[in-house]
Specification:
The chain has 559 residues and is an alpha/beta fold. It contains 25 helices and twelve strands. The strands form three sheets. Strands 4-6-7-8-5-9 form a six-stranded parallel beta sheet, with helices on both faces. The protein has a three-stranded antiparallel beta sheet with strand order 2-1-3. It has a three-stranded antiparallel beta sheet with strand order 10-12-11. Helix 5 crosses helix 6, helix 7 packs parallel to helix 8 and helix 16 crosses helix 19.
């Protein structure tokens, strides 16, 4: 058959199920239009129920495994010539004048999604919030590499026909708000002269006016870059070590007004924000019955993670695969990286990799974690280091007791809330209450950073023959006294063992005797000044097989 064909509503539903089985998005999966030897624009017209050239129509169906294209087509509407995009209007029961913004898209810096696995529940939740509940502001929250951007692309692609226009903007380049508002107003103006604004408040008002006039889906990706870090804190705020109130990066505080107004004012649009951190503006407005919602994104389900490995050439039935998925918390980024490494180093043998008893982060994941941890306040880092040392879930009271100078319970609780909003903390329900811990990948990174800091301190102390460089070894206990019935040598000594190996590699075999010369400098110092330093040096010297002379340690307080 020649001419143009459009899909029926039932046909589109069948194609939707078929593309979902392949893990493809509706219009953002490049493989789809490439396999069909057509264009992305044609694929979009197909989904909008617009007649397209018959050869492209059948090829689009074949690409997702549907051979009986006639069952997909609306055979009551077959035209002999294709209709140019600009001449086609969506079917409407009531004739209306064409809207200048109808079905307009600007995907900006949105990435292509060649394949997509799982997230059925999350996709359904987001679609329900956006379409059924008509939420105004939605935060997609999760740690780096968990798949927030991929999910945002997929859900936007899936429901874009429910909106008159779609706009994607990445905040990674850190655009000042006035630049973002100008870009949005230019899009809305569609070629005509966009409105200028004298101040941020006026610019936000103009954008919201467009959000009232048109049903728009606005996605702002990677919002965490405009949140402040400890180095950006004003001098007057440095006494507050918890920083539980989220600070905005200098010059970006006016984004808070945008979020508040989009979440509170009347309009018919939706702003989807992806971030590793939750701003207080959203925390204050969000709720089950509120037009502001937050979806915390966790790792992939086992079955979906297995499908990811199958894409990488694994059978999906390898011994240890599920253990590997749990070890990496179902993180798509981490699993993709480790799948490649296992193929290259272990010839695809997952069991052999797991026998190494280690977590491999990979450059990209390590970079993401470094970015996130570097933004923490001193108090937040304290908690992270203690959780890495503990290695097992720990309750609030035990965590607080670890500190040389314990924070108040309220300070500690605020810090834990802040870490949870940064997607760095795991809460475990235990018989005696809630316990806190880190995911294996986060724990691995924090432990590595901790050991590097300790090595630098030891090297500086040996060179200067002074105990002033010791900060970490004063604040944190490498090994803490445990009741006999709770002793676990492997668990208690794991960080000392790793530190010993790193010291030997970095500072050489003489590090033990060099470190022993520091011991006399501890004599005469008060316990509050030394903190955990004395105990830590004893344990390090033992691990390095340096003889401990009891007379040498006389009159040195040990915590």
């Amino acid at each position: 058959m020649t001419g143009s064909i459009r899909a029926s509503q039932q046909g589109l539903e069948r194609v939707d199920r078929a593309r979902h089985r392949k893990g493809w998005t509706k219009t953002r999966t490049m493989a789809w239009w490439q396999d069909a030897h057509t264009s992305q624009a044609t694929l979009r017209r197909f989904w909008r129920g617009i007649a397209i050239e018959s050869g492209s129509f059948t090829a689009i169906c074949h690409a997702v495994g549907i051979s009986d294209w006639e069952a997909i087509a609306d055979l009551d509407i077959v035209e002999e010539v294709d209709i140019p995009t600009e001449m086609v209007a969506l079917p409407s029961p009531i004739p209306t004048s064409p809207s200048p913004n109808s079905n307009r898209e600007d995907w900006g810096e949105a990435p292509d999604v060649p394949s997509f696995h799982g997230r059925t529940e999350e996709l359904g939740q987001l679609e329900s919030w956006m379409v059924k509940d008509r939420c105004k502001l939605i935060l997609l929250l999760g740690m780096g590499g968990i798949g927030k951007t991929t999910l945002a692309v997929t859900v936007a692609d899936q429901i874009q026909e429910q909106f008159e226009c779609l706009i994607w903007r990445s905040l990674k380049p850190m655009p000042p708000l006035e630049n973002l508002l100008g870009s949005l107003l230019k899009f809305f103006a569609q070629g005509s002269e966009s409105q200028s604004f004298d101040n941020i408040h006026q610019g936000i008002s103009q954008v919201i006016e467009y959000l009232k006039q048109r049903r728009c889906l606005l996605i702002l990706d990677e919002a965490e870059v405009i949140f402040g870090c400890s180095g950006d804190i004003a001098e007057s705020s440095k006494r507050d070590r918890t920083l539980a109130t989220r600070q905005w990066r200098d010059g970006y505080e006016n984004y808070a007004e945008l979020l508040r107004r989009v979440g509170m004012e009347r309009h018919q649009s939706c702003l989807l924000l992806t971030s590793r951190e939750k701003p207080n503006e959203i925390a204050a407005l969000s709720g089950e019955n509120s037009p502001v919602r937050c979806l915390q994104l966790r790792g992939l389900q086992d079955a979906d993670a297995v499908a990811l490995f199958q894409d990488k050439g694994f059978s999906g039935s390898e011994i240890g695969l599920k253990s590997l998925i749990q070890l990496y918390g179902g993180s798509p980024l981490a699993l993709k990286a480790i799948a490649t490494m296992i193929q290259e180093v272990f010839a695809g043998n997952i069991k052999e990799f797991l026998s190494q008893n280690t977590v491999v982060l990979g450059d990209r994941l390590r970079t993401l974690l470094k970015e996130q941890v570097s933004r923490l306040s001193p108090m937040e880092k304290d908690v992270m280091y203690w959780l890495a040392i503990e290695r097992q879930p720990v309750c609030l009271s035990k965590l607080r007791a670890n500190f040389v100078l314990p924070p108040t319970p309220s300070q500690l609780m605020e810090t834990l809330v802040s870490l949870e909003r940064r997607s760095l903390l795991d809460k475990i329900a235990e018989p005696n209450g809630i316990a806190f811990t880190l995911q294996p990948m986060v724990m691995k990174y924090v432990a590595e950073e901790f050991i590097e800091q300790v090595i630098d301190e030891i090297e500086s102390a040996i060179e200067s023959k002074d105990i002033k460089p010791f900060k970490f070894l004063r604040k944190y206990a490498l090994i803490k006294p445990q009741p006999n019935n709770q002793s676990n040598p492997e668990l208690n000594y794991w960080i000392v063992t790793r530190l010993k190996d790193s010291l030997m590699i970095n500072l050489g075999c003489e590090v033990g005797s060099d470190l022993r010369q520091i011991v006399p400098l501890l004599r005469g110092k008060a316990l509050p000044i030394l903190g955990y330093l004395s105990r830590n040096l004893v344990e390090i010297l033992k691990a390095l097989e340096v003889e401990i002379d009891s007379d040498e340690w006389r009159d040195i307080p040990i915590r």
